[in-house]
Design a protein that fits this description.
Elements (H helix, E strand, L loop, with lengths): L1 H30 L3 H14 L4 H13 L3 H14 L4 H13 L3 H14 L4 H24 L35 H12 L6 H16 L4 E4 L6 E5 L6 H11 L8 E3 L10 H14 L4 E3 L7 H7 L1 H8 L2 H11 L5 E4 L3 E4 L11 H5 L12 H7 L1 E2 L5 E3 L6 E3 L1 H10 L4 E4 L8 E4 L4 E4 L13 E7 L6 E5 L15 H6 L2
Parallel strand pairs: 1-5, 2-3, 3-4, 6-10, 7-9, 10-12
Antiparallel strand pairs: 2-13, 5-6, 8-9, 11-12, 13-14
Amino acid sequence: MAGAADCDSVKMAEAERSSEMLKEKANNYFKEKDYENAIKYYSEAVELNPDNAIYYGNRSLAYLRTECYGYALADATLALELDKNYIKGYYRRATSNMALGKFKAALKDYETVVKVRPNDKDAKLKYQECSKIVKQKAFERAIASDELKRSVVDSLDIESMTIEDEYLGPKLEEGGKITLKFMKEMMGWFKDQKKLHRKCAYQILVQVKEVLSKLPSLVEITLKETETITICGDTHGQFYDLLNIFELNGLPSETNPYLFNGDFVDRGSFSVEVILTLFGFKLLFPDCFYLLRGNHETDNMNQMYGFEGEVKAKYTAQMFELFSEVFQWLPLAQSINGKVLVMHGGLFSEDGVTLDDLRKINRNRQPPDSGPMCDLLWSDPQALDGRSVSKRGVSCQFGPDVTKRFLEQNQLDYIIRSHEMKSEGYEVTHNGQCITVFSAPNYCDQMGNKGAYIHLRGSDLKPEFHQFAAVPHPNVKPMAYANSLMQMGMM
């Protein structure tokens, strides 16, 4: 018996040694910002030694860096089940909940840390910041329940806003008319890190709200045989990379239509410049320049990931409220020639959803936690058949069989979606029926990925992929305007 016990203890010691080596390997990959390999080796360490809270805590942080907030939350929770005194576990879980907009749950974890470490200034700061957000959200809910809530547009008097003599930047023509000359001047002005006058910004926002509010939730277009459309994925406030797309592929025009597939803002610190440029082109070419809503055109995301902070820093809180109103009118999906469906996230948590269901979505709101609107903005494809819990903690993951059934029911050929960084800028999965395109190269200045855009010709609708590398930008780091809790929590 003693011999067997000795043998078991030797095996356990070996497993612990091996798992520690795997953890160190994972840590090295993490330092190199290769989060996929870090996750792989943390997972192998967990398999060898499933009772070590640190392995789950480390993997949780790697999942946070890859935006897999659902997985990060699960790992942090497991770590705390193994060791309730593991302080980093509370931080990781709080950050995951913050990312998912679950502020009360995050506050509870920060409260625990403050009780355990009453003299920890960092913990106290995070607790106070999170508490402030919880109170602000409660206040917003109270206001939202007032059915007479007025639009920001009603309280604006744009005509009385004066443009000072010392402002030398671009101005809209009489009556707020957008011209190609104005667009070129505005992009050049932004490139030099100068700010568009607030009157011009308000003029763009008021007009684009009017245009978008008249569109259906599912936009349906037909390309002629000779026409080609360019489809771009996430741009995430990377203005200089957006300029590069136009440099490589030509400016938008009636003969050079574009579709930008959501997530125009957040993370990158030139989100104001990106969105005003895109809105300007929507006004200039309303019938051949298309914009779809992403999961980051929402209040919760903007509060955490920088856009709200950026608008307040460059303009005012009132202007952010107007941006929020405009985002709610962005269409959710677009069909091309009745054969290709484009959306930001992906397909649905349940079978049987039809294009007619998409047409009927009431989109003028913040997205719900479940249902078709949520799925269009949040879901992701997976390699295995069926559906599984989302790695992000919102919506679901859907397999090739789900895609096949949806396409057959709706007489479509394939879907194009964005929402996920891909190292090559694009990815073709589900037997060619699910295409991902992502247009923010070297995402957040650290992922080293290429960007891509797709050309679709009306004659055959075969996707043609074009890749591009990141270009230099001024020394303003990504997340510069993000909520301080997200900046600190990702450490």
